[in-house]
Amino acid sequence: MGFKICSYLINRIKFIYQKIFVKRLKVGFIGLEESGKSTMVYALFENKYREDIGSSEVRVSKHIIDNVEITIYDIPGNQTSQSKWDHYFKKVDVLVFFQSLIDSPEKIERSREALHGLLYRNMWMKKSLLILGTKNDLPEAIGCKDLIIQLDLVSIVDREVACYSISSKNMVNVDLVRDWLIEQATLGAESNM
Length: 193
Fold this sequence. Notes:
This protein is of the alpha/beta class and about 190 residues long. It has helices spanning about 1-20, 35-45, 85-90, 105-120, 145-150, 175-190; strands at about 25-30, 60-65, 70-75, 95-100, 130-135, 160-165. The chain has a single domain (about 25-190), classed as Rossmann fold (3-Layer(aba) Sandwich), CATH 3.40.50.300. About 40% of the residues lie in helices and about 20% in strands. A six-stranded mixed beta sheet has the order 2-3-1-4-5-6, with helices on both faces. Strand 5, helix 5 (about 145-150) and strand 6 (about 160-165) form a beta-alpha-beta unit. The termini are far apart.
């Protein structure tokens, strides 16, 4: 009997602690196929590189960093899954859009159209946006400035937009992404007070 009471009290204290001190952030990872979304999940939270882990279904994972519980919705970028983007846009607090820096100009144009279409269809929801140019470790990768121009990011003026050039393979700028997510959770917690 005494053990059950102690166990109950410990669970209640943990519950109260998490409600008061742990911030929560729901993040949508979107982008066309083979843009590095799933690979980034492993780089961000497990500090390791995994290649060829694409999926045809949404993967949901929870991770805790610096007292922030981050729920990642890793949404596939194939044509059939893009219809889910709007649904998950409504569920998340912030959006991370992935673009491979080695894609052809035609594929980058498709990405631009997909991103701007998503933002236009959901224009009443002003969610912070992080653009990640992936695979910057490859010699044919374009620069971050070129990505900003090709995705026409300067025309997005109604929300916070950040753009980083990253490499999940070499762990380049992964720490900046982690810091940005924690900052967004902190800003979200302050605005809810």
